[in-house]
Write a structure and sequence with these properties.
7 helices, 5 strands
């Protein structure tokens, strides 16, 4: 099977006030425009982002937030995940739409039904313990499925695996 390309994503660590504290580099050939972090955040609906940041900073077991921009001006952006990171810091993962050259790729790998279930919950921003509880499996089993997903999708991280799966059509937006 030919190697799947590395997904296009950018991560930002953001303070509760919206200040960008750190940024992961955009891969070469990213589908989106070259923009500074502040411009990336300004392309998102401000009130939705503000509410997601506030929810992710609550002390009572915050839930991740998944945003799918509908604005035609941000066609380069496929999905935004706002995840609690550590107190006082939120990780925002921007999944960029693939460039036309990337869409003509190899056939996606075959995933077992359980791998698809784990992948779907990962895409929804669930943590390992939540996935284990929802699927009634152990944490080592979740880790095994996660490892298999990264291997099958040729990804270094689970975020890359989710982005690759979305691009290949293995998971569908809600």
């Amino acid at each position: 099977m030919p190697r799947l390309s590395v997904p296009d994503l950018i991560w930002l660590d953001v303070a509760p006030d919206g200040e960008v504290l750190a940024q992961g580099p955009a891969p070469e050939g990213a589908g989106g425009p070259a923009m500074p972090p502040g411009a990336l955040l300004s392309a998102l609906p401000r009130e939705v982002l503000r509410d997601a940041l506030a929810a992710a900073n609550r002390r009572d077991d915050p839930e991740p937030t998944v945003l799918r921009p509908t604005n035609a001006a941000v066609r380069w952006l496929r999905q935004v995940n706002v995840l609690p990171c550590v107190p006082g810091r939120i990780r925002i993962v921007l999944f960029l739409a693939p460039s036309p050259a990337q869409t003509a790729e190899a056939e996606p790998p075959h995933l077992s039904p359980r791998e698809k279930a784990v992948l779907t919950l990962l895409a929804a921003g669930r943590r390992r313990d939540r996935i284990a509880w929802e699927l009634n499996i152990s944490l080592p089993t979740v880790d095994m499925h996660s490892r298999n997903l990264r291997q099958k999708l040729k990804a270094q991280t689970l975020s890359e695996a989710v982005a690759t799966a979305a691009r290949c059509g293995l998971i569908q937006p809600d």
